């Protein structure tokens, strides 16, 4: 989270309103180890930020073979055993939607096993000139259909896609 990412320093009023609309929807988070570590090192220290209590309150399931419980960030739980099987079990349980934030390697693995129901992508009006790819070269192509989108006042496009 060094530098705050591409949205740092920009007003996000419409994006915040969109987040507010979805914030009250019950959900749980699924995070890879690196994303969880970045979030856990940043968000609990952001007092006064309206997203902090929301993130603190959410159940956070962490995919890692190197971390041990107890995890220090409130409501964080380590997935036991095979991550794909653990996610299948999470999806089979009644309960809130599961959202993955960041965690590119985890998303690619979930996609290969047919465990992604939707992608919500935030496209910022910034060209960084490099970076990680969302999908690996050689991944099976998949058609998606746009099911929702909003453009913020700063030009960020928040788009939801589901498998076609």
Describe this structure in words.
With 164 residues, this protein is of the alpha/beta class. Helix content is 29%, strand content 23%. It is built from five helices and seven strands. The strands form two sheets. A four-stranded parallel sheet has the order 3-2-1-4. The longest helix is centred in the N-terminal third of the chain and has 11 residues, at 13-23.
Short description:
The protein has five helices and seven strands. By secondary structure, it is α/β, with parallel strands linked by helices. The protein has a four-stranded parallel sheet. It has a three-stranded antiparallel sheet with strand order 5-7-6.
The CA-CA distance between the termini, in Å, is 33 Å
Q: What spatial order of strands do you see in the largest sheet?
A: 3-2-1-4
Estimated helix fraction: 25-40%
Low-confidence stretches: none
Largest β-sheet summary: 4 strands, parallel
The Cα radius of gyration reads 16 Å
Structural class: alpha/beta
- What's the mean pLDDT score? 87
How many helices? 5
Number of beta-strand segments = 7
- The H/E string reads HEHHEEHEHEEE
Query: What percentage of amino acids are in beta strands?
Result: 15-25%
Coarse morphology:
globular
Output the keywords:
alpha/beta, single chain, three-stranded antiparallel beta sheet, about 25% strand, 7 strands, 5 helices, about 160 residues, four-stranded parallel beta sheet, about 30% helix
